[in-house]
Amino acid sequence: MKWSEISIHTTNEAVEPISNILHEAGASGVVIEDPFELIKERKDQFGEIYQLNPQDYPEEGVIVKAYLPVNSFLGETVDEIKEAISSLVLYNIDIGKNNVSISEVNEEDWATAWKKYYHPVKISERFTIVPTWEEYTPVNTDELIIELDPGMAFGTGTHPTTVMCIQALERMVKKGDSVIDVGTGSGVLSIAAAMLGAEKVRALDLDEVAVTSARLNIELNKVHDIVDVSRNNLLDGVNEAVDVVVANILAEVILRFTNEVASIVKPGGYFIASGIIQQKKLDVKEAIAAAGFEIEETIQMEDWVAIIGKRKQ
After folding, report:
1. Which of these three, 117, 141, 172, is where a domain ends?
2. Ramachandran angles phi, psi of 85, nearest 5°
3. Which bin fits 92, alpha (ψ -120 to 50), beta or left (φ > 0)?
4. Where would you tag: which of 105, 157, 190, 271 has the fewest CB atoms within 10 A of its CB?
5. What is the pLDDT of residue 86?
């Protein structure tokens, strides 16, 4: 099968929303080439150090690559992607050069590209993310291994927004808790919650591709008896009380449904919100507080922010 690689030269600030646009357009994989990876300091306990080739990265900005099947709708899809990216400036998101290029690749080349950028990474005190094609031996007896195949939907489990969510879940989820994961993507947050002892987890996503991918990853990690995956728009129609709601999505979306989150989180329960750029931090904190949560913690990793709110008693 033939695939078309779409490459966008943009900024770090725009990586998350552009990745989301590509995913919603049906992209079958996202690769992020950020030159910051070449120089950033890594703590030994939260990741492995790899030898990275500078030639794989742009001199400035960030390149986001995605893969679309070559078909009669490709031209229209690319035009829609370009229009959606250009509209990000309406949300005060710097899209940088916004140079878009298209090239054709074979399916086997696309698979190789994924493997080149994705390796086992320890992202918290207990969790290590391992791609399905890699062999990995746990270092500690209490280490929790999440196996992921990110080939169908955006989300490898190693992006800062996801890492912060998992670290927050590790501290907040107790045995027997009920959890809702809004915008589940690859299902990694739902899998983590189940492994931490949650009794019931609902994984929701509006995109059918993400729902399919999450189900596959949940089966792979043998937590399908705990996690239920379904297609849903945010919390529409959800009314059961839960202990934790986690959402790793755009700040603009979080702002739209904080009141719905407050209506289902039990008193003393938690709302973990991530996917927030630095410029939107105060807006999101104010919205979460106004909905009836006490801001328990604000976490920052690189240019991203996660907020933990505790429902007032």
Report:
1. 117
2. -65, -45
3. left
4. 105
5. 94
